[in-house]
Amino acid sequence: MKSDKQDNSPMRCNGSGEEASLKKDRRTDRLLRKPVVTARTGMSVSSIYRRELAGRFPRRVPIGVRAVAWYESDIDEFIADPMGYRSP
């Protein structure tokens, strides 16, 4: 028997932009520091910051007074499609 309840889990989204409205679960997402991000992307720090300001690179997360990091899943999304990436 089929249930009348609607399944709103991320795996059941239909691609109509519904995924974008769901917040990512960051509890298990690693934070990557600047040297790791530059190594993975092959980009210089100045290029990363310039693209970030333009909305074409993931936003950094402050982790201290003078320390920033990026979520690994965001960097992986960028690496998958660097030219098409748009920051949410």
From TrEMBL:
It comes from the Bacteria. It holds the Pfam family Phage_AlpA. Gene3D superfamilies: 1.10.238.160. Residues 1-31 are annotated as: Disordered. Residues 20-31 have a biased composition (Basic and acidic residues). PANTHER family: DNA-BINDING TRANSCRIPTIONAL ACTIVATOR ALPA. This is AlpA family phage regulatory protein. It comes from Sphingobium yanoikuyae. The lineage of its organism: Bacteria, Pseudomonadati, Pseudomonadota, Alphaproteobacteria, Sphingomonadales.
